Amino acid sequence: MKNRIRKMVAVLTATTLTAGLLTGCGGAKGGSSKGDEKELNICIWDGIFSEEAIKKFEKDKGCTVNITYIENTDTMLSKLVEGGNEYDLCDIEAAYVKSFVDNGLLQEIDHSAIPNEQYEEPSLLEKGPIGDEDYKYTTADSNAGYTAIVYNTETCPIKIDSFDDLADPALEGQVAMVNSTISLYGAALSALGYSPASTKEEEIAEANELLVSIKKNVKAFVGESAVSALENGECSVALCWDYSVLCFDDEANWDKFAIADIDSDYEKFVQYWGIPAGSTKKELAQEFINYMISPEAVAMHIDDWGQIPMVQREYIEEYLPEGFYDNPCIVKYEELADKSWLIAVDDEQINIMDKYYTLLMGGK
Q: Around Cβ 208, how many Cβ atoms within 10 Å?
């Protein structure tokens, strides 16, 4: 992912210090610093939350929820800076939580106001993200996902046992890959036996050489999703985060697509709710969080988008269709939990990765 996090965080922090108590939702659109308690401005990723659930919350609470959709954290930071910090709630990648916390961009959450946390999967409750392990500033908003090598069992011409296999000439023009810097270089570093959190330039340079060899086979680098390229047959294999989407999209995909079992680990990612430091709508934001992680709402998210429930089976199964837990993605993701890595964005690392990412995408 092309990142400007250092500059953006610096600007945002300076803005926070200058503004003191920042305006709440609607602040950049003429709202007063006191804010309208019946409005909530949220910044979220598309494809995770049910619009029906959001509308139900609006109806039940007699409020308006204004949504800004993002495709990456860089976009979120841009919007926070350029929009005058008007958001009351943000959906943050685990890898970026530490940066948000360290730079004072989030306010503390009152977990007593979010009783539905008790229904979450134990793995989400045991420990928070890097930088907020004690859940002082965040709370999970979805279950874990994975950036993995997904292949078409019918058309992929080779058996994939390692990340390096993506460079096999037999896959020429058949590979799709996410264009996320951390995902690409983390996967390559792991394949080479290095830590995905490495800040050693010689190791990242070696990872870049591996990615260059794979790029010869890449049909397309994708941002949000590789689903279309896989389902329409354009690509037979992809490094992507879409296995759950494919499995929940169509039962026919259960046998058609699979995750390659390779000799290195895959990237794990989790999303978290965070309330920006300048929001004056903490109470309403926490009510929104509490509803959005309720068994009923999580079932709505799953019905709309397809994902592994963040709520324990005993509390959510009544809201889900019969046979839901037969989905192979559920078992596969449980297996990947112990064979995965998750790191926090580091300025030193990302600056080196960006240098090589530019060369990689420039074809040098």
A: 22
The CATH number assigned to the domain holding 262 equals 3.40.190.10
- As a whole number of angstroms, the distance between CA 139 and CA 310 comes to 12
In DSSP notation, 43-91 reads: EEETTSS-HHHHHHHHHHHT-EEEEEEESSHHHHHHHHHHTTS--SEEE
Note whether 132 and 51 are same-domain residues.
yes
pTM confidence score: 0.85
Q: 92 — phi, psi (to 5°)?
A: -115, 135
DSSP class of residue 111 equals: G
Q: Are residues 137 and 160 in the same domain?
A: no
Residue 21's pLDDT band (cuts 50, 70, 90): very low
Report the alpha-carbon distance of residue 44 to residue 200 in Å, rounded.
33
- Tell me, yes or no, whether 152 and 296 share the same domain: no
Same domain for 258 and 281: no
- Pairing between strand 39-45 and 138-140? unpaired
Is 272:293 a contact under the CB 8 Å cutoff? Answer: no
Angular region, 193: left φ>0, alpha ψ -120 to 50, beta rest: left
Q: What range defines the domain where residue 61 resides?
A: 5-143+270-322
Q: Could you tell me if 259 and 150 are in contact, meaning their C-beta atoms sit under 8 angstroms apart?
A: yes
Give how many domains the chain has, as a whole number: 2
Model confidence pLDDT, tens digit, residues 217-235? 999 999 778 999 999 999 9
pLDDT of residue 17: 34
DSSP helix, strand, coil percent of the chain (3-state; round to 5): 45, 15, 35
CB distance 232 to 102 below 8 Å: no
